[in-house]
Specification:
Blueprint (H helix, E strand, L loop, with lengths): L1 E5 L3 H12 L5 E6 L2 H10 L4 E5 L7 H10 L5 E6 L4 H10 L3 E4 L4 H29 L8 H18 L6 H15 L16 H28 L4 H11 L1 H11 L11 H13 L3
Parallel strand pairs: 1-2, 1-3, 3-4, 4-5
Helix pairs in contact: 2-3, 5-7, 6-7, 6-11, 7-8, 7-11, 8-9, 8-10, 9-10, 9-11
Pfam families: Response_reg, YcbB
InterPro entries: CheY-like_superfamily (IPR011006), Sig_transdc_resp-reg_receiver (IPR001789), ST_Response_Regulator (IPR052048), YcbB (IPR013972)
Protein name: Chemotaxis protein CheY
Length: 280
Amino acid sequence: MNFYIADDDPDTIDLLSDLIENDFNNSIVGVADNPQQAYDDLLRLRVDIMLVDYGMPVMSGIQLIEKLKAANSQPHFIMMSSVSDAKTRTAAYQAGIDFFLEKPINLAETKHIIRLIAGYTLMTDKLNRIFELVGSSAPYHLPQSQQRQQVDRIKSILRFLGITAETGCQDIIRIISLMVDQKLGFSDIDFASVLHFDAHTKKIVFQRIRRALKVGLNNLANMFLDYPENEILMEYANNLFGYKNVHNEVLKLKGVQNNGGQISLQHFFDGLLQESIIEK
């Protein structure tokens, strides 16, 4: 896994370098203490994950990410910042980051997040190939650019939830792609005629999806333990799972109760469709 660090604090660069290179599967292919150098390097290097500071001089971390995306350089982004208000976090996630870390860096948290994002990255190519295969089974009616933008947004949300490595994620992408293309609600899908699901296949697919969503619910609840007031987490909790279910999952993690949150496939898919068209 190739990493790049953009930060004007040499101590942070040293700390992250040691942390990343403790895993022999990782390599740091570059560091920069200014955004322009980072931008120039990213155009010529293959970078899987970029750790970028929000508060660099001249160009903010968010502006750097937006500039890189405009140039079609799109590694996974982890943003670091000593500013942790809700407005900054929201802007960062809307720019397309995968996770937001507060400074000063917490070693245990950072190590966990790096491993998590690395896992997402390893699955991305495989999922893209799968999507191309299964997506071709149904006709597309939306302009490809619009459909692709919505699906990219959906994949970003699934990465955020930490479920791209789950088997059910492939089924989620297949179903939501159909909903995006034909502007269908979950209850409007004719699984038998369009996706060729008989009763047995439908049951198995839904079981896989529920298992994947249970992982996502648990991951979201874990993030709530650390960032209970985060606006992005609140939005996903309400739109994808229902806040009550996330709250119950948090209470289970705290040991307050034995039962966690419940999964509603219709609530999740309809919420995911809505998230894909929200202007970010």
